[in-house]
Amino acid sequence: MNNYTLDAESAKLADNINARIETSGKYHGIITRAEQTTSTKGTSGVDFSFKSDSGESADYLTIWTHNKDGKQLMGFNTLMALMTCLRVRELNAENGEVEKYDSEQKKRVKVTVPLFKDLMNKPIGLLLQMEEYPKTQGGTGWKPTIFGVFDKDEFTASEILSKVTKAEKLQKMVLSLKDRPLKGAAVQSSGAAPSDASGAFGDFSDDIPFLFNMNTLCDTMGAPTSYWRAKHGKVMSLVLANQTDF
After folding, report:
1. Rounded to an integer, what distance in angstroms lies between the CA atom of residue 27 and that of residue 130?
2. 215-241 average pLDDT score
């Protein structure tokens, strides 16, 4: 027979069964979905679902790796870091059944999609950054994005490849981690987007924030920020970006 003493931290975890990650920070957990994905503009990448050891989850953590012409994007480096931290040398997609949030049903449902199974269900660490994004019907929301990757022992990819014996870089990365609000120019002053502003992102509900800062958006569209400045000037609207066909 066991005797029990109250553990306050364990009691708190009981509330996190279906909780979403809503705070920038360091998380240990597993990737529950690593889905091969392609945007409507032809940009390719991997879309993740993550569940922390404390039971909180995050969906639609998308890493864009190549534009429609096959050019590597910044997300490629992040994917390589993730593979390093999981000791995976090669990825091959194969169909599999996973749970995925359905915006119309407002719940997680089982779907069959192409998966990189070697990235899934293994201990991994993510630095998640909360980013503000403009909703297509006006206003803004917040979503987590991948800021950094580390292994279960808190070594980063560069430390693993350098075969160092003491993990030191993660602490510095955590110190630089903070929420990323939208810049004022990215949201229309009226607070409402045009009725057709969903553009390339029409597949996604406002309840599932996608990506949205200008750097990641340009990665998704496959064009650098310099392209935007040349075409539209220094004021670059994210709503306008969603309507543009590169």
Report:
1. 13
2. 49
